[in-house]
Each structure stands twice: as structure tokens, then as C-alpha cells.
Design brief:
The protein has three helices and two strands. By secondary structure, the chain is mostly helical. It has two domains: 45 residues; 65 residues. The chain has a two-stranded antiparallel sheet with strand order 1-2. Helix 2 packs antiparallel against helix 3. 2% of the residues are buried.
């Protein structure tokens, strides 16, 4: 049991180390590419400062919020009436049972939409971008 914990910890450490190495190599490649292509045309006398900035995702965040809000408004109603109609036509259930099952199915749909929104939020890229700015 203890060896499996150690192997999991080692795997996590190895993964973090690999991720850091990949990130550093990408930053170095990006820095080499920008200095060799003349975008910065840096000489030894010029100083550049690395500034960490996150991606501007405010517009995308509002669009995703609008999308999930639309789902939150429409799908529960559609589910309620679809299940209600299906139960009325397919099974001989009472009105109370029909309403209870229809409401329960609408609540399940709302919870699924919330779960999808949370999963989408967790999968967003929150890695900071490295921007080189010239010191004045």
C-alpha cells in the first residue's frame, strides 16, 4: 500500500517536472524565435522585462455564460413538457405522478447543465502568458 502511494507521488512529481521543462523549452524557443526574426531586435545594450499576463478571455467568458444561461432557461422547460407529454400518452399515470416525474426530470437537467458549466470552467487555460516589454 505504501509503495503505491510513493509511486503515485513520484508520478505526480515526474509529471510536474516534465510540465515545467516543456514550458521552459517553449518559452526559450519563443524567445529565440522572436529575437532572431527581428521582432524585438534585441541587442546586448537593451533591457527587456518579462511580464506575465493572462489571456484576455472576458469576451469568451461572456459568450459561454450566455450559452449556458440559454440552456438553463430552455432545456428544463422542454424536458418538463416532453416528459409530461410522453407520460400522458404512453403510461396511465395520475396527474400528480406525472407532474412529480416531469419536475424531477427538469431538475436533473438543470443539475447536468450546472455540471457542464463547472467542467468547462475547470478546463479553461489559466496559464499566464510571457510578454517581453522593453524597459524605458
Amino acid at each position: 500500500m505504501a509503495s503505491s502511494k510513493k509511486s503515485k507521488l513520484n508520478a505526480k512529481h515526474d509529471y510536474k517536472q516534465l510540465l515545467e521543462e516543456k514550458t521552459q523549452s517553449l518559452v526559450q524557443k519563443n524567445t529565440q524565435a522572436t529575437t532572431t526574426t527581428g521582432v524585438f531586435a534585441a541587442t546586448e545594450n537593451e533591457d527587456f522585462e518579462e511580464v506575465y499576463e493572462g489571456p484576455d478571455t472576458s469576451g469568451a467568458a461572456y459568450l459561454w455564460l450566455l450559452f449556458f444561461s440559454t440552456l438553463m432557461f430552455t432545456l428544463p422547460f422542454l424536458t418538463f413538457y416532453a416528459v409530461k407529454h410522453w407520460l400522458e400518452n404512453s403510461f396511465g399515470v395520475t396527474a400528480f405522478e406525472n407532474n412529480c416525474i416531469s419536475v424531477f426530470s427538469a431538475v436533473i437537467v438543470v443539475n447536468l447543465i450546472i455540471c457542464l458549466y463547472v467542467i468547462k470552467a475547470f478546463r479553461e487555460d489559466t496559464q499566464p502568458l510571457v510578454v517581453r516589454k522593453k524597459n524605458k
